[in-house]
Amino acid sequence: MTDAAVQEGPDEAADNSSDSTPDELSELRGLLLAPEQTQLSSLQERLDNPARHAEDISRVLPDAFTLSLRRSKKLSNALMPTVEEAIGVSVKKNPQRLVDAIFPVMGPAIRKAIAAAFSEMVQSLNQTLEYSVSLKGLKWRLEAFRTGKSFAEVVLSHTLLYRVEQVFLIHRETGLLLQHVEAGAAAVQDADLVSGMLTAIQDFVHDSFGGRQNDALDSMQVGDLTVWVERGSQAVLAVVFRGNAPGELRRLMQDALDSIHVEQREVLENFGGDTTPFVSSRPHLESCIQMQTEAVTRKKPSPVLLAAVILILLAIGLWLFFWIRESRRWNDYVSRLNAEPGLVVVSTEKRGGKYHVTGLRDPMAADPSVLMPASKIDPKDVISRWEAYQSSHPEFIIARATSLLQPPDGVSLGFEDGVLAARGSASHEWIVQARRLATIIPGVVRFGEEGLVDRDLARGEMESVKREIEQHAIRFAVGSPELTPDQKDELNRVLSEVQRLGLLARSQGAQARVEVWGHADQSGSQELNDRLIAARAERVVSALVALGVNQTDLEIADPKASSKLRDYTRTATFKVKLIETRNK
């Protein structure tokens, strides 16, 4: 069968080839090349479809970036302009988005920087204030005057003396010491131990007192040494110094730490315990070794300058002396003006080298210029302006009342609490006129005439008072010179009438004298009665004098004359008689 088939093959093949169609060829091609064609179609679709390109690139792009950055910085340099331009466009379009993105990182850093700057400013201000009011501050002010520097510069030159002795670079994650530099012979015995202790203290403070993740101990004091700490993303820089370091030291620490992170970023990220690569960071650490000493040069004061200073001080002292003396004299003059009746000072000031005073002056008040010599004030240096007014001082009211009423001889005027009081004797016409004019005087509310006697009516009234006095009798107990208790009212009535009689008598140019007569009944002997008469008269006189009667207005009658006028009653009495004598 095989042979037959073989024999028939060529002929049949020839027939079949002649009878083959394009469809059969295509089918044969598809059977032979189907897998390859499918792959080619898929590849063609990938090449023609941009979306597939992006998907394919996204799968390998992160790894490609990582490999490229490890090999060189060409990719970073190539992407930098594009990234910067993209950030610029984003900021212009919506700056808030960038602010929201960096705020969690920048906000605490900014607040920390502001707090540190404010703390340094307050510290410097406190030191300046402290030394400004001390003996050392006075010494430094003289030094500033000699050297020509400002006081603040001199204070800073003395208070900001410091010396950095140790600088530690510590790996932040492990706490291992990466590098350590020291100033001169200020070395520590075990730098690794110090580094470990600093890390332990940092962790202890953070764990004990809490706070945010990025909060840490920034500084601490150990005796006279101060430790400042600056933290980076991979490393920590600690500086140990003596004295008062300025804020510039922290900026140096930050710059050194930033430079180390930039130059040794990969070494820090892949740190496994080998500190050899960090030897190259020593120059940055050594840049923090700072020392500031007193820069003020001391020079001997120049004799000419010293003499000038003394002359200036003398001139200032003389000026102060004359200014104080002049101020005291002026204040004394103003005090005298205020104390003077009828002068009211409204305002005082010194303007244009002259003293100016304004106020109110009563026409009857003293001239203000008269008071200047007492205060040693030159009238040429004072410009006064006084407005007229009427003062309510009693002295001026009495003077105006005297000028207006013109009281006659024997009449005196007084003023108190708005009452113009007249005392003495005057004609009826003057009294009526005074009543009418007194109330128009400024400050006078009422005219008081209780102590005033109408001379025209006094004569008849004086006779009436004489009769009333003579009708009084003061009674005594039988055989006694002592007054009985019920006679006090009688004595008060006699007192009032005697005073009234004296006033009336004086208004008539006369003097009234009251003669006191003692009396006794016939119950005793003549000698005993005479003594009793005299004693009773003396007792009445003493009682009236004690009540306010003038001693010269009373007179005791002769006991012998009184004995002839015996009152033949059981009680002793006395009589009052008026003796009138004219004053020449």
Task: Give the averaged pLDDT, no decimals.
Answer: 76
- Report on the biggest sheet: 6 strands, antiparallel
Number of strands: 16
| Quaternary state of the chains | single chain
Describe it.
The protein is α/β, with parallel strands linked by helices and 584 residues long. It is 55% helix and 18% strand. The chain has 19 helices and 16 strands. Strands 1, 2, 3, 4, 5 and 6 form a 6-stranded antiparallel sheet that branches. Strands 10, 11, 12 and 13 form a 4-stranded mixed sheet that branches. A 3-stranded mixed sheet has the order 7-8-9, with helices on one face. Strand 14 (510-518), helix 18 and strand 15 form a beta-alpha-beta unit. Helix 5 (95-132) packs across helix 7 (151-159) and helix 6 packs across helix 7. The longest helix is centred in the N-terminal third of the chain and has 38 residues, at 95-132. Mean pLDDT is 76; it is low at 1-19, 295-299 and 567-574.
Task: Output the keywords.
single chain, 584 residues, alpha/beta, six-stranded antiparallel sheet, four-stranded mixed sheet, 19 helices, 16 strands, 55% helix, elongated, disordered N terminus
